[in-house]
Design goal:
By secondary structure, this protein is of the alpha/beta class. The protein has a single domain (6-303), classed as 5-stranded Propeller (L-arginine/glycine Amidinotransferase, Chain A), CATH 3.75.10.10. 23% of the residues lie in helices and 24% in strands. The protein is built from eight helices and 16 strands. It has helices at 53-72, 117-120, 123-132, 171-181, 219-225, 237-242, 269-276, 287-290, and strands at residues 6-7, 27-31, 78-82, 98-103, 106-111, 136-138, 152-154, 161-165, 185-189, 202-206, 209-212, 231-234, 249-253, 258-264, 280-284, 301-303. Strand 8 (161-165), helix 4 (171-181) and strand 9 form a beta-alpha-beta unit. The radius of gyration is 18 Å and the shape is globular.
Length: 304
């Protein structure tokens, strides 16, 4: 019987058809990269990297233009834009500072508790933004770390979450979140330091399909995922690590009946699989942001 609690792979004793349906959000939030830089090493991708800030600005503009194109075609309802704050070099990665959700018809957001002190300074800016657009703010207790949708990813169209842990987020955070949001959370331990957030290695596509790289997970967790996804599509770890293939942003929009994706250019298997799944793909260059350990998925947040 499905319960609103955390589950390990071995504990999954429910079927997907037991999980209530959920509407996907149709608004997107981005943050300008005014102060984007690599100033220290927070993950293995940042070692020895130096950002070309002019090129980074150009790359961000291309992502911004994709979202406005999607809005013009009725795929998104709105594009929100925050301004980056001075001294907050990673604020552009808007997937990390929060986790927005719809709870009993009310817009709520769990604000993050970032593992790195430099990134924790970003959170108040996002709390203020959510308050202005009518979200109820939910706070985690104690000293647990939680890094938003970087590590907590919804099952497409279902009231079910997947929580990555092992590098940034503490598993204890998900026990609190499951109770606050009244939603079951499947725990996934991240094994490989290249895949320090779940959004670098795990990408649900539709109710039955997930794209992932096996290198990031324990074999027992991969077996558990097969209980919930009919189709587990494997992406090579070199595409996931070098091109951040699984850090793509997909919108499978039931209202407009359109399936679109924006991904880092240069992948082969990822493109082939998305084409098979019926997605219209836009390839852009996010190489300056990959130096900091993020790409398209990291650089946005979908909102209700």
């Amino acid at each position: 019987m499905l319960k609103n609690k955390t589950y390990t792979a071995a504990q999954i004793d429910f079927a997907l058809d037991e999980v209530p349906a959920r509407h996907e959000p149709r608004k997107v939030l981005v943050c300008t990269p005014d102060y984007f830089d690599v100033v220290d090493v927070k993950n293995v991708h940042m070692k020895g990297k130096k950002v070309n800030k002019k090129e980074a600005a150009t790359q961000w503009e291309k992502l911004w233009s994709v979202y406005h194109t999607w809005q013009n075609h009725g795929i998104l309802d709105k594009v929100y834009e925050m301004k980056g704050a001075e001294g907050m070099e990673d604020m552009v990665f808007t997937a990390n500072q929060s986790f927005p959700w719809m709870l009993n018809g009310e817009k709520v957001v769990v604000v993050s508790k970032m593992r790195h002190a430099r990134r924790e300074r970003e959170v108040p800016h996002f709390r203020e933004f959510y308050e202005k657009i009518g979200y109820k703010i939910l706070e985690l207790k104690d000293s647990v770390h939680f890094e938003g949708m970087g590590d907590l990813i919804p099952h497409y169209g279902k009231n079910l979450l997947y929580g990555g842990y092992g590098h940034r987020t503490d598993p204890g955070a998900y026990e609190q979140i499951s109770k606050m949001l009244k939603v079951p959370v499947v725990l996934l331990k991240l094994e490989d330091e290249r895949f320090y957030h779940l959004d670098t290695c795990f990408l649900p596509v539709d109710e039955n399909t997930v794209l992932l790289t096996p290198a990031a997970f324990r074999k027992s967790d991969l077996q558990g995922l097969k209980k919930l996804f009919k189709n587990v599509v494997e992406i090579p770890d070199h595409e996931a690590a070098e091109f951040f293939a699984l850090n793509a942003h997909l919108v499978n929009d039931r209202k407009s009946k359109k399936k679109v994706a924006v991904i880092q250019k240069g992948t082969k298997v990822m493109k082939e699989q998305l084409n098979k799944l019926g997605f219209q793909i836009t390839e852009i260059d996010t190489s300056e942001y990959i130096k900091s350990g993020g790409s398209c998925f990291c650089m946005k947040m979908m909102l209700y």
